[in-house]
Predict the 3D structure of the following.
Amino acid sequence: MKTPPNYPSRPRLRPPLRSAVALAALLAGAAGTAGAADPKRGEALAFEYHCMTCHGPRGRSSDGRYPHLAGQHAAYLEIRLNYFRSAVEPTNQMNAQAVHLEDDEIADLAAYFASQP
Ligand code: HEC
């Protein structure tokens, strides 16, 4: 029997594969900016913006409502801060924290918290 002309030869593989490529590109981009980031400036910014008030000293939270940031991947922290800055979830508490941050500040904050034990 002949295969119908519009038979999907690679069923359901294409869209997830496209997302994976997009995610890899996003992560590579974020990692690229993290390489140029300045964790010392990030530390100063973390005090200036009172990140420790909720996330704890050096990003070690003692309150279950607030995630640890210490030792997290810098690329992931950048992705999260960009996400909050875009206010995807209108009621998220982090939106107000991230809305004023410049790209280089996000990179420096991420580098600082990632470098903490
Ligand atoms: C008023 C309390 C508060 C302050 C101040 C605050 N945060 Fe947050 N932060 C939160 C809460 C609550 C969450 C969890 C939100 C969520 O994941 O939806 C969070 C989540 C995060 C996350 C995501 C962590 C993860 O594991 O996904 C990052 C990164 C982050 N904050 C960075 C910062 C930085 C950098 C600052 C300072 C500029 C800051 N936060 C200031 C309350 C705060």
Observations:
- The helical segments are 14-35, 39-48, 51-55, 74-85, 95-98, 103-114.
- The radius of gyration is 19 Å.
- The longest helix spans residues 14-35.
- The pocket of heme C is lined by residues 49-51, 53-55, 65-67, 69, 77, 80-81, 92-94, 97, 109 (CB under 6 Å).
